[in-house]
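ok posting inputs for the coenzyme A job
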Amino acid sequence: MLIRAAKRKDAEKLIAIEQQSFSDPNWKAGEFFKYDTIVAEISGQIAGFLVARQTFAGDNVSLPEREILNLAVALPFRRLGVASALLKEELRTAADFFLEVRESNLAAQALYRRFGFIEVGRRARYYRFPTETAIVMKMKK
Ligand SMILES: CC(C)(COP(=O)(O)OP(=O)(O)OC[C@H]1O[C@@H](n2cnc3c(N)ncnc32)[C@H](O)[C@@H]1OP(=O)(O)O)[C@@H](O)C(=O)NCCC(=O)NCCS
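and the output
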């Protein structure tokens, strides 16, 4: 498995994975390139992606902070460690990490807990289609 930065030519595949992964797929192709997007490639195919951004640069007392904005794995490649490999790469950065996840998304929550994320808050009615609470999770280095 190769983890690399996303390229413009990956856009169509990123959108296809987004469409098959979410009940409210709302990311446009260009958005992937506004942030730090990495992809996992298996035998030349894009198996999944992770999008993150820095939300705080850090200072003398605090590490930088990053937010994981989007993560999805193509259906045929699930449960093979693709999301784990993408997360491992993102978490190499010296930073504290935040993310939001649907309350019903137990698969993703299990994945994030395995990487040391803990629940730090909830946002009611944060998601639409369907309307749902977001669980805010944090991983402190
Ligand atoms: C959540 C998601 C990214 C996981 O991707 P993946 O590549 O299949 O995950 P991995 O193979 O790295 O799984 C690592 C661990 O996470 C947990 N996990 C992953 N999928 C799971 C599932 N469907 N049910 C329960 N636990 C799951 C398990 O602990 C798993 O370890 P195991 O396979 O040894 O039991 C993928 O299911 C997906 O794209 N879902 C739709 C989009 C989504 O929900 N994104 C996250 C938004 S916050």
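notes: Strands lie at 2-5, 36-42, 45-56, 65-73, 96-102, 118-127, 132-139. The helical segments are 11-21, 82-90, 106-114.
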